[in-house]
Amino acid sequence: MLIHAVVHMPPVATVPLGVVAMVFLVLYWIRLGRPDVPRSRRIIRRSSIAIALVQIPLLFVSLSLVDPVVHPRAYILCWLACLLLVVLIVVVAMADVVNNFRLHAAESTRLLEDTFTGSDQPDE
Question: What angle do CA 95, 89, 59 make, to 5 degrees?
Answer without folding.
Answer: 175
